Fold these 3 entries.
Entry 1:
Amino acid sequence: MAKTGKNYRESAKLIEKGVVYTPSEAIDLVLKTAKAKFDETIELAARMGVDPRHADQQVRGAVVLPHGTGKTVKVLVFAKGEKVKEAEEAGADYVGAEEFIQKIQNENWFDFDVVVATPDMMGVVGRLGRVLGPKGLMPNPKSGTVTFDVAKAIADIKAGKVEYRVDKTAIVHVPIGKKSFEPGKLLDNYNTLMEALIKAKPSAAKGQYIKSVTLSSTMGPGVKINPSKVTE
């Protein structure tokens, strides 16, 4: 069994075993247990009552958090023609086509956090599927990253847009802010994300849709939220 650090053990003592908290109580506890010297990320993990093996039970989408994530996001845009200038003016960090395909394939370059592509570029970007896919970086229409409206896509991403997608174990992992955020702002972000997850419920999902919700900081223990009261 892996050993835990002193800060983690001290933080864990603040959380009562077997107790589930309201969202605001959980946020307060997570902030108290975030004792690292850096600005830890506060992350939500939700176990969904779906079977990810079935296409009609996928939970995937994107939502703009009202207070952002606290992270500076680098955006790579695949575009051509007038859309190149539009992307540059909108604040994209990198804009281009073949040159970035080559850079990623030949140099293993990944100095970006999100990839946006215009629909007419997906034939080119598709060549990176095996590389971008496993990293969760492949542009997708459902998350708004395949679009001709690159300016809006970039603005949303820079403003705090986050993608959510259920993994193979039926869990969704999404950051909702930083330790330096005020509790109220974290709660706003949390509620916005949970409302998006609830709206994304697949029609094929049966039984309890949200089985558990846990909040944690980068280096801290998890705090469980009452699944019957996931929003506040």
Note: Strands lie at 41-48, 60-64, 75-78, 94-96, 114-117, 161-165, 171-178, 210-217, 223-225.
Entry 2:
Amino acid sequence: MNDTQQQYDVLVIGGGPAGLSAALVLGRSRRSVLVVDAGEPRNAPAAHMQAFLSRDGAPPSDLLAAGRAEVAAYGVDIVGDSIAEIDRTATGFTATTTSGATYDAGRVVLATGLRDVLPDVPGIRERWGRDVIHCPYCHGWEVRDQRIAVLATGPMSAHQAQLFRQLSDRVTFLAGDTDPDAETRTALEARGIEIVTGPVAELVVEDDRLTGVRTGSGAVLPLDVLVVGTRMEAPRDLPDRLGLEMTELPGMGRQVTVDDMGATTVPGVWAAGNAADVRMQVINAAAAGNLAGAAVNMDMVQEEVRLAVQQQASRTTA
């Protein structure tokens, strides 16, 4: 081990709700824990997070700041960096960060979240998390009764339109170049959801506010909110390097395959939050991190029991 290499019981990769929750459980179990966080949370564009009991409407950054302070109180180390390489060793794993630091750990919790792959329409990325949204449970209340258009990007888009119809009676389904099948069209029209076909060329923004979308024909459809279904992708570099099995969710994205407690297909590696379930909101990710942290600790306890029994047997036969 070189001078810059440190040994931890657990390396948590990602310092969002899932990673910090896992670190909290492990820190309280008197494990040595390192959290490596690149500082690129998925919900950074959002001013507030919703549907988190007792934290509804709080800025995401406030939750992370509070979580960092809590885990630090239990001796958890946090570094602002990202993992460039990770390899299995005889005793666990060795990880090297982009800054060149190297860490050894017996176990790994992968909580790297995911990234949203946005539709290739001019203006969407600049408005993302503001008046271009994707989740009725995250943002729906805030856009209730407004003019909402749902941009078709996959098989779940019509379902999105039905969810937002619960929140406003002014919902339009932008079907693009596809023609909804008869069943989908009937369901949309039955609830008064207008269907507009043809491509969307760009967003129309005035005074830093979305006011409509311009179609391929040049016509402008007035609206206040655009809903898009993103393709949600968990980072692949670390899972691939660790040899983790991945699961493809049709129309949604890829995620690490885990069991009910977050264990991956590779011994010693757990995954939690959006890395393991692209559908999770903040509160779900925090809960998954809690479960994964407990599972990691139990795995370590079982190993400690096994070693203690072996040592006792050795002393008895000596």
Note: The helical segments are 17-28, 60-72, 124-127, 136-139, 157-165, 182-190, 237-242, 282-317.
Entry 3:
Amino acid sequence: MAGLGTRFLPATKATPKEMLPVVDKPAIQYVVEEAAAAGMSDVLMVTGRNKRPLEDHFDRNWELEEALTRKGDADRLARVNAASELAAIHYVRQGDPKGLGHAVLCAAPHVGDEPFAVLLGDDLIDPRDPLLTTMADIQAQHGGSVVALMEVDPSQIHLYGCAAVQPTGRPGTVRVTDLVEKPEPGTAPSNLAVIGRYLLDPEIFTVLRTTEPGRGGEIQLTDALRHLARTPECGPVHGVVFTGRRYDTGDRADYLRATVRLAWERDDLGPEFRSWLREFINDPARQPLRPAA
């Protein structure tokens, strides 16, 4: 999570991109809620400079809690306390932003020899689609590592890590035989993109320690997973092909779409918001905004 969030400047000049609100919660809270819902009670955040607001958000705020208690505002008090009660949350700084593989390697002292999950803060998975639970089932059955995959338009696959796969006989599950980070146009082995959910065998740390910088001069997690997939004695790599609801908050347009979709479906906000949005879209007098002269 040590990225600079340059696509959201100037909003992210002093605010971590993970703290940008999606409706009324920061994006990172949705990710921690997903981990907690899958039974993961110990969370390590790999952070960088200017990420202190993440720690503050998941900590207690005694002054605010006391003020809400005095007002008798039990609803807001519960929402404030929810973030600090999700899991035991720890933090480690990445230091130099050397890529996702390096960020994962920073977690090695905390993780030890246990399988672990990696959840990227830019990807929000709808809680009605329990992707992590499905991935955990596959890992329990086959061992090794499991990655989340999603079909994308072939014209967009060069923006992602891409998997070559073989069928397993289980619908929605494939054996990963190779991985390529952001393949050159026309060279991708499939249209299955790796999205931001991984369940990893601790053997990944051994591989990452000897993985040379790859695309972009960074240590790529995709390159380490490629080694595991192509080395049978390291354990298999499987993929779960996700067809549910995913919200990419790392892109400005997708961030707006995620906010609209989640607000639309909220019981407390949805009815009024849906009514307003329909009127807004169908208003014949509405004209596109033009920049001021």
Note: The chain has two domains: 1-97, 114-248.
